[in-house]
């Protein structure tokens, strides 16, 4: 295994220079030099020559490369900031260059499927928990890395880029991952909390996207703040039950990465998931909305996976189930709302 000198360890690696990757790379660059990986040569050139990418400013202490080996050789702390749909491809590209000394933190709020060749979600009768992977589980499965963490919280990238105050959670089984994340990212404008329940924190960030799509739909219909309060509180209860069934703790859902991010995403016109719901409610077909979006709305893939899991686990998750039918089975939003208003929820909080 190659050894590393202490001076080399100061350079921090970031994989993926989309909205969130750029925001995080810029924050990291306030304290350490940063090397970012982008797969396209023209993006690498743009970052190195103009210190911008896709119209966003890039900190002058950030260099770019399209060589995964260089990134892994020069950085022993890596932040992976790519959408879940690209995760297996990206992780497998980096896996040959990763060693157990690497420390990896990811910021992806999506799920992946661990299926056999030729299997698809549609073909599976019962989707088991072990066939669903959070991104930390993908990293652990595909690489020799051990010290893995996630970063999740109310972190709309457009606000981070403006330097507005915010906070996040770094979750890991390893305290040193949390401490490194805090050391690298904490600033006067950015607070970093720790949590040892990595699965619960990942699931919180993943599941709130479903509720955010529903919140966008309510806003698109102009149904007001009472309805939103109702959705957010019932959405939180649904997230708790789904997260518990998938291996997360109640505490993580009611913390910053759960309720904190839920409130933010359900209220932000900058949220891609909220925007999908809003445009659906205005009458646009889902395919048209997704085709016109350059950035990923993770909730769409998440709801397919979670809906399949709900059936296997025998759970009831009325918001998720009804939203799935709106998105994929032609149920009208108004009909879904009527169904939810008649649903016999009777206990307010049933998980403590
Ligand atoms: N944007 C936000 O406000 C925000 C905040 C918190 C978390 N997140 C999460 O971060 C993740 C990324 O979101 P984003 O907003 O940066 O998305 P984005 O669509 O803006 O950017 C995705 C980046 O990944 C890169 N990428 C995609 N496929 C790739 C591949 N096969 N190989 C290499 N690179 C590839 C793209 O080139 C792009 O740079 C998502 O899971 C999202 O939920 C986003
Ligand atoms: O734009 P969204 O909907 O992916 O949400 C972004 C972040 O998850 C907010 O914390």
TrEMBL record:
The active site is at 208 (proton acceptor). The keyword Nucleotide-binding applies. It is found in: Cytoplasm. Residues 197-337 form the Glycerol-3-phosphate dehydrogenase NAD-dependent C-terminal domain. It comes from the Bacteria. Keywords: Cytoplasm, Lipid biosynthesis, Lipid metabolism, NAD, NADP, Nucleotide-binding, Oxidoreductase, Phospholipid biosynthesis, Phospholipid metabolism. Its EC number is 1.1.1.94. Pathway: Membrane lipid metabolism; glycerophospholipid metabolism. It holds the Pfam family NAD_Gly3P_dh_C. NADPH binds at residues 19-20, 39-40, 109, 157, 272, 296, 298. Its main location: cytoplasm. PROSITE patterns: NAD_G3PDH. SUPFAM superfamilies: 6-phosphogluconate dehydrogenase C-terminal domain-like, NAD(P)-binding Rossmann-fold domains. Residues 12-176 form the Glycerol-3-phosphate dehydrogenase NAD-dependent N-terminal domain. Belongs to the NAD-dependent glycerol-3-phosphate dehydrogenase family. NCBIfam families: PRK00094.1-2, PRK00094.1-4. PANTHER family: GLYCEROL-3-PHOSPHATE DEHYDROGENASE, GLYCEROL-3-PHOSPHATE DEHYDROGENASE [NAD(+)] 2, CHLOROPLASTIC. This is Glycerol-3-phosphate dehydrogenase [NAD(P)+].
